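name: query_chain
kind: protein
chains: 1
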Amino acid sequence: MVANLRYASLLVLALVACGGRAPAPNNVTAPPASRAALAAKPSVWAERDRSVALFPKSIGRLQIVVTPGWVEGEHYAWLVSNGTDVVRVFKARSTEIGDIVDTAIRTVYPTVGTPLDQLSIGILGSFHKPPPPPPDPGGFPGDYVQEVMRTAWGIDREQVKIGGEIGAHAGH
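structure:
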C-alpha cells in the first residue's frame, strides 16, 4: 500500500506540473537565481559517486526540473531544494531520467511509514530547448538558469500549498 501511495502522489505532481511552469500563487514573483544557481555545473549521472547521497536528508522539499540538452537524447536534471537552492545538476541520457527520479523516490520514502511522513517531491518535465551554450564550457546561460529556478520556485510554492491543505485536513 505504501508503494502505491508513493507513486500515485508523485504521478499527480508530475501530471499537474507537465503542463508548463508551475504557477506562483497570489501573483508572487520568484526571487532571482542565486550566484550558486548561476554557477551550477552538471555532473554526469552515469559517472556519479554512488556512495554519496543524491541530496541531504535534511531537505524538506525537493523539486526536480528536467530540461533538454544541446544534443539529441541529452537532458539535465536539476535537483533544487525549497525552490531556491540548487542541490545538484546531472547531465543524463533520455533513458536515465527515470533512474534519477527513481533514485530520488527511494531516497525519500522509507519502506515503512507513510509517504506524507517524508519529504515532498515535485517533478516537471522538459519545457524548452536551451539557447546556445555560453562561452564558459559546462555552464548554463544566466537567462536559462533563471527560467529553471522560476520553475522550481513555482513547483515549491505549489508543494507548500498542498502540504498546508493536507495538514489542515489531517487535523480534522
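note: The chain has one domain: 2-130+143-170.
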